[in-house]
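At this stage, I needed to go through a protein sequence along with its fold in token form, as given directly below:
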Amino acid sequence: MIVHERGCVYNFNFHLVFVTKYRKEVFDSPEKIEEMKGLLQKRADMSDIQIQEMEVMPDHVHMLISFSPKQRPVDVVKGLKGWTARKWFELHPETKQML
């Protein structure tokens, strides 16, 4: 998908894979999977990141994302992982004990 913005045109795609610590199956129910998808989408909306594809598996997450080249990839990944992990552990403190 080619994006036209003032001052730049880009087609910038990243495939990210986030793995849970020790590959523990944290997302073990459809409700938890949908909850994680919702958290990731909320954070992406806050950071002007377009999620093109997303799949949450029991022990990892796949995402195909696009964002402006004005944003550093390391900051995008850190923001997605850090924010969603904090929110997840607030909602599900029992999973922190698993890890």
The CA atoms of residues 16 and 77 lie 8 Å apart. Helices lie at 30-46, 73-91, 93-98. Residues 3-98 form a domain with the Alpha-Beta Plaits fold (CATH 3.30.70.1290).
